[in-house]
Fold this protein.
Amino acid sequence: MSRIKTTVQSLHAWRHPEQIACEVEEELRFHIAKRTIANIESGMTPDQAQLAARQSFGNFHQIKTECCEISRNLPFDPGPLRMGIYIAIAVLAGGTALWAVNIPHHNLSAVLWQLIAIAVLVRAFIAGRRNKVTCQSPKE
Amino acid sequence: MSKSKAGLLQGTLDMLILKALSLGALHGYGIGQRIAQISDDTLKIEEGSLYPGLYRLERRGWIESEWDVSDNNQRAKFYKLTRSGRKQLILEEQNWERLAGATMKALRAS
């Protein structure tokens, strides 16, 4: 169930990147604000406290960018899904080609559908190979 | 025991976040505080590095988050452990104990 939820969240992050960026920023700023308050309570001046909070936090923009990128990642490898979609389209195109062959005077459209099916199958094959390459461990 | 700050081994941060959240829902800042508290201030995590870790754990479905109001009436994102996160924590603890035991055995070998 949580996998479905995270997939929906990833798709949401793809569709609304600026909203995700704002939320990440708000979250990180909240952290710095809390640290600043803690620093003031431990005896620092407000300026010192804020500076120390920013320093102990690290590179704000780099962390924000990293969090936004992670938000957009799907919780599974999209390679097999992509290949499956291509194969499904190829099967549909092939089926349509078979159907078009049986209609009189539609040989041209049958050929066209056959070509589409072949092209999509080739694309699926390439997607599959690319997926295999991605899964290989890097060379020593 | 020495109070010198210990550096974190790779992969330990995830386990510590899960452990901190096993005690209740918290925002990012609170998680850092809780880790420091339960480790008796020995483990100090780099504050910013906590967040990519949190986002990764959420992607894996081990934690989930929702926006709520914090104790000082500010909007904050709170994280909590999911059921699969709880299972993962048990696995991580078992792995860690095995690894720590083996390392200790190796160090004591004469």
User: Anything to note?
Assistant: The radius of gyration of chain A is 26 Å. Residues 133-140 of chain A have pLDDT under 50 and may be disordered. The interface with chain B takes residues 2-3, 5-6, 9-10, 23-24, 26-28, 30-31, 33-35, 56-60, 63, 66-67, 70-71, 73, 75 of chain A (CB under 8 Å). DSSP finds six helices and no strands in chain A.
